[in-house]
Specification:
mainly alpha, 137 residues, elongated
């Protein structure tokens, strides 16, 4: 397997494939922890859900970008990416906890775009913090 990874195209395809599969898996996890169906709400035109989901997507792929950059193997990259995802998921619950005057999920489901925007920016911003903290080789 190591000899295959000497070819840039093979290595790029492998990192890309694993990252896309992980993104799909992690979006499934986000779908399970939210009170609403992301894709049904997006289909209905719910911009708050689209922003929050877009922030999650950007956050996850940004973490994987950093994990690819700082890992010397596919397995290590996947480990850092999964760990970063867990931290991003925890951030989602902390956001809900820190807003006791309203429920984030309910507001996003009601298309409260202000809450959707904050959720998006929180995911994006924290993905940079998580990515920057990934230890270099």
């Amino acid at each position: 397997m190591d000899t295959l990874f000497e070819y840039e195209f093979v290595r790029t395809a492998a990192y890309y494939s694993v990252s896309v599969l992980a993104l799909i898996l992690f979006l499934g996890v986000f779908e399970l922890v939210t009170r609403y169906s992301n894709w049904k709400e997006i289909k209905k035109g719910n911009l708050a859900v689209a922003m929050a989901t877009g922030g999650k997507i950007f956050g996850v792929v940004n973490i994987f970008r950093h994990s690819i950059e700082h890992s010397d193997s596919l397995f290590t990259m996947l480990g850092w990416g999964a760990f970063g995802f867990v931290l991003l998921l925890i951030s989602y619950f902390v956001f809900e906890f820190l807003t006791p005057s309203f429920h984030v999920d309910k507001e996003i489901e009601r298309d409260n775009r202000a809450v959707g925007l904050i959720a998006m920016l929180l995911s994006i911003g924290l993905s940079y913090v998580i990515g920057a903290s990934i230890i270099a080789r």
